[in-house]
Amino acid sequence: MLSRVSITHWDIDGLASAAFIYFKVRPVQQILASVTSLPNYLLEVLRQTPPVREVWIADLNPQVSSLKALITFLEEAKKRRIRVYWLDHHEWDPGVYRELVGFDDVLTYVVDPNYTAADLVASKLGLRGDKFVEELLKLSYDDDFFLNKYELTVRWRRVLRWYGWEVRYKALESFKRRDLAPAWMIELYNREVSVVYENLIREAIARMDIVERDGFRIMVFPDVDPRVHPGEIVDVSEKNGLIAHLYIVRYPRGVSLRSDYIDVSSIARDLGGGGHARAAGIPGEVSLRAVLNKVFEKIDQSKYVPLTKSQVV
């Protein structure tokens, strides 16, 4: 039997991708990871016994800062004839594509920001049309594009951020059993998450600062609890009339950028992160001053739509 491993992100989209890979590929090991831990897991795959022959990666974008480790892995994959499938919907740095030239014989990758990673995986594996797959795809799309049409999306998002890796792996097992709303998740949400989570959002907004540059308004949320999703902070802020061109959410170990006016993925990539045009992140302890300087540099180069007087508080 061919030894296969999957490595995916831990949010709804990443878990859906992992479940779909399980349905069709049956990997011997499934790893949930972040973009910063991905290189270490790839190198760990090379040390496994029996040797891994196929690796599936989904919902994780390669970081420029980790390119050396990625190339080391791909060179070894080439020697050992390990096949790598990589499906992602984040914006990749152009430099990454240049480094991947020459690995076509071992690496197949699909990058399309118009879809979720789970959608790309389901299509690649021929799973579209399956009732459970389609229902889970709705949640992954609802979460990643922050549409929030379904209450179940919000519950899963909060539970996955609130608890650690044990709960995330438990969620994956539920999805693999085709259980979209397991009783244990609903109980956790109702017992511990719902009330406290709302309070943390309010606390984050209360500490918000405003920075302006030539009419470009930035709202900065410092020292935010990492269990709170940045999109929910922005959503509540806007519903309360707090509107900006750019929102910066500062966590203990990273920064989230969200904007409908400028491409935040380019800002994040320049600082060692990545993501989407409207929502991106920078891992690690990057300084707020460095982020603001990069933002100022970008807005000086870009055209943006000014906020109307009715939008400005």
UniProtKB/TrEMBL annotation:
Gene Ontology molecular functions: hydrolase activity
UniProt keyword Transferase, yes or no: no
Position of the signal peptide: none
InterPro entries: DHH_sf (IPR038763), Nucleotide_metab_enz (IPR052968)
Gene3D superfamilies documented for this protein: 3.10.310.30
Keyword field: Hydrolase
Superkingdom of this protein's organism: Archaea
Protein name as catalogued: Putative phosphohydrolase, DHH superfamily
Species in which this protein is naturally found: Thermogladius calderae (strain DSM 22663 / VKM B-2946 / 1633)
